[in-house]
Amino acid sequence: MEKPQLCLVVLVVLAACWPAVSPLPNGAPLSSCGSMAPKHLGATPQTGPPPYSIMIKNYTDKVEVTVMGTSYTGILLEARYPNQTDAIGSWAQPPTNTKKIACFNKMDSAITHSNTHMKTNVTYTWISPCSKNDTIIFLATVAKSKAVYWVKLASDPVRVTCSGSAINLHGFAALVVLIISAVAVL
């Protein structure tokens, strides 16, 4: 085979394989939501101690979630009830270089990267569904690079309260009782 023909054959083979080996620079696919495992061909999750931790602040109906540690390029972040597989709640507008996605057909239920720019100690804001006061955990898959990543890093359990809703409801109930009492006195 002549050299130009060989180059053409090599280019055709590379072009045919390109989608299968290219990284996912625009974020995690929806098919990763359940397992939270990236679709990085030829790479396996790290098993050693991760250089990342998930820090939580503000245990009300809005929770600030910070992924602390060394710089990373990719992320998939979800809130879940412990021992459950579906994401819960929604996320506020995420910082630059990240975006919201609809895991499990739930709008804005997860955060992922929107490019492979480095991210360091980024804080995201999660909004509770306020359907009940309950304990939740935050799970993150964090990719330092395409080949180096940790799957389902977990935060400490967090007790989320919907105090704003409860206060409003109790305030309304107190107002009704006060009105009824006033009417009864008249």
From TrEMBL:
GO terms for cellular component: membrane. Residues 1-23 form the signal peptide. InterPro entries: Ferric-chelate_Red/DefProt, Reeler_dom, Reeler_sf. PROSITE patterns: PROKAR_LIPOPROTEIN, REELIN. Residues 10-175 form the Reelin domain. It holds the Pfam family Reeler. The keyword Signal applies. Keywords: Signal. The keyword Electron transport does not apply. Transmembrane segments: none annotated. This is Reelin domain-containing protein. It comes from Chiloscyllium punctatum.
